[in-house]
């Protein structure tokens, strides 16, 4: 790694504000507070795209979701963890995809980075990143999405350790690098989630960045959080956000709903079953919250993310062909397994007016609760949910109807208190939601 004084070296890792810098980076001058020349990526804190991915047939959808499950089971899980962590995979920018899953990761990567160019003095375009040191870190999550009654039953049965779809609050980062350089978190430029089911708890993204390396006691994690975004699962929906943001899926406070569509009334039991079966391809994955996660890395490749093993690739069943280059013989019967409908990544859905939440009053039922067992950035964290449980649940219902919402939170609505340093035996979630 190098500091900003070494930025003439092509292969130097130069870090600024938690990111590996782009090729046009210029160290700010002392006392310079001009913010006009911000990096072109991430383009905005949060963006949501409905129907970003579609699949042309039920058979192709079933095969694709089955492949997601195969890849997910290739990941390891510790019994004490609330959801499956483990290895993530990496598709280098210059590598051709070998399967449909890699093709989707490749498509999402280029949807976000195409156009990142600068004009040169001779009128030519020059990439703002080095393709040889860039790519897509990707993985899948296939998690049980139990009903509220089922979750309550699990709470009463301490021996039931089956994982559900709640995901602990965490940062996406190169944790392999962090293990070598204490107090140093390097983040992807953009974190993305593509939902491949209509069920499960929503994703909560907080406007809270990780501490700077100089903040060894992680004090900057503490205090109120004033802004958040809430995204409910919808098949084919794609969300992207600043890769430095804290996020997770705390289902107790922001629960799933029966059906994440505009209708305010719950569907009949039969209709729920039909929707769940359709959204998961009818291949035994009904009742699962399925997500396809891609982190956009520019000018740095995460240390521990590896290319998907050939043995796993050979087990995948989705029919896929590389159509990026013209061939002498084209299979006219071939139908791509998915279609990306994002025409312009700078034009996401309009979220409308932000929802405003306030702290629970003395006359109300009181604050929703406190989470005391969190470990974030190797520190014990107490997270207080200070609005009423009803207010949080109402926010989740609103997000289910709209797909995604922005939330402005008043003082005491959501706050974190930083405690002692965690031991090596304490768990910390470090994957996406």
Describe the overall structure.
By secondary structure, the chain is of the alpha+beta class. The chain has one domain (4-31, 51-421). The chain has helices at 58-73, 100-113, 148-156, 175-180, 269-279, 310-313, 389-402, and strands at 15-16, 19-20, 46-49, 53-54, 89-92, 117-119, 125-127, 135-144, 167-170, 190-195, 203-209, 223-224, 227-231, 238-242, 245-249, 288-297, 339-340, 355-357, 369-376, 379-385, 404-409, 414-421. Residues 2-8, 77-84 and 259-278 have low confidence and may be disordered. Residues 422-433 have a biased composition (Acidic residues). Residues 414-433 are annotated as: Disordered.
Quick summary:
With 433 residues, this protein is of the alpha+beta class. It has helices at residues 58-73, 100-113, 148-156, 175-180, 269-279, 310-313, 389-402; strands spanning 15-16, 19-20, 46-49, 53-54, 89-92, 117-119, 125-127, 135-144, 167-170, 190-195, 203-209, 223-224, 227-231, 238-242, 245-249, 288-297, 339-340, 355-357, 369-376, 379-385, 404-409, 414-421.
| Main sheet: strands, sense, barrel | 6 strands, antiparallel
Structural class based on helices, strands and sheet pairing: alpha+beta
What fraction strand? Answer: 15-25%
How large, in whole angstroms, is the Cα Rg?
22 Å
- Give the termini distance in whole angstroms: 29 Å
Q: For the largest beta sheet, what order do the strands appear in spatially?
A: 3-14-10-16-8-5
Q: How many extended strands?
A: 22
Low-confidence segments, ≥5 residues, pLDDT <50? 2-8, 77-84, 259-278
Number of H- or I-type helical stretches: 7
Overall pLDDT level: 85
Oligomer: single chain
Principal-axes shape call: globular
Fraction of helical residues? 10-25%
- The overall number of domains is 1
């Amino acid at each position: 790694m190098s500091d900003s004084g070494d930025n003439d070296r092509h292969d130097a890792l130069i870090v600024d504000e938690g990111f590996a810098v782009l090729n046009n980076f210029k160290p700010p001058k002392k006392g310079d507070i001009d913010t006009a020349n911000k990096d072109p990526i991430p383009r905005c804190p949060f963006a949501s795209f409905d129907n970003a991915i579609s699949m042309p047939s039920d058979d192709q959808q079933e095969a694709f979701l089955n492949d997601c499950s195969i890849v997910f089971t290739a990941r390891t899980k510790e019994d004490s963890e609330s959801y499956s962590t483990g290895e993530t995979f990496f598709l280098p920018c210059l590598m051709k995809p070998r399967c449909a899953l890699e093709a989707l990761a490749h498509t999402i990567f280029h949807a976000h980075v195409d156009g990142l160019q600068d004009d040169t003095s001779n009128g030519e375009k020059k990439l703002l990143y080095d393709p040889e040191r860039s790519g897509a870190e990707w993985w899948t999550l296939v998690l049980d999405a139990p009903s509220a009654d089922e979750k309550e039953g699990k709470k009463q049965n301490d021996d039931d350790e089956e994982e559900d779809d709640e995901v602990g609050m965490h940062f996406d980062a190169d944790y392999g690098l962090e293990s070598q350089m204490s107090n140093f978190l390097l983040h992807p430029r953009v974190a993305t989630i593509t939902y491949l089911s209509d069920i499960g708890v929503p994703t909560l993204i907080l406007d809270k960045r990780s501490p700077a390396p100089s903040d060894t006691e992680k004090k900057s994690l503490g205090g109120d959080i004033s802004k958040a975004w809430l995204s409910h699962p919808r098949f084919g929906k794609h969300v992207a956000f600043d890769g430095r943001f804290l996020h997770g899926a705390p289902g107790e406070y922001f629960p799933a709903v029966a059906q994440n569509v505009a209708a305010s009334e719950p569907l009949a039991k039969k209709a729920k079953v039909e929707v769940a079966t359709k959204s998961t391809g009818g291949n035994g994955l009904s009742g699962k919250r399925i997500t396809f996660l891609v982190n956009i890395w520019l000018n740095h490749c995460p240390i521990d993310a590896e290319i998907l093993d050939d043995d796993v690739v050979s087990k995948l069943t989705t029919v896929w062909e590389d159509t990026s280059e013209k061939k002498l013989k084209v299979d006219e019967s071939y139908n791509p397994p998915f279609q990306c409908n994002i025409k312009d990544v700078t034009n996401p859905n309009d979220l409308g007016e932000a929802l405003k939440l306030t702290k629970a009053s003395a006359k109300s039922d009181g604050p929703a609760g406190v989470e005391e067992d969190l470990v974030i950035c190797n520190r014990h964290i107490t997270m207080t949910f200070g609005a009423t449980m009803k207010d949080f649940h109402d926010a989740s219902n609103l997000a289910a109807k709209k797909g995604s919402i922005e939330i402005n939170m008043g003082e005491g609505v959501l706050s974190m208190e930083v405690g002692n340093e965690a031991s090596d035996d304490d768990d910390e979630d470090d994957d996406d939601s």
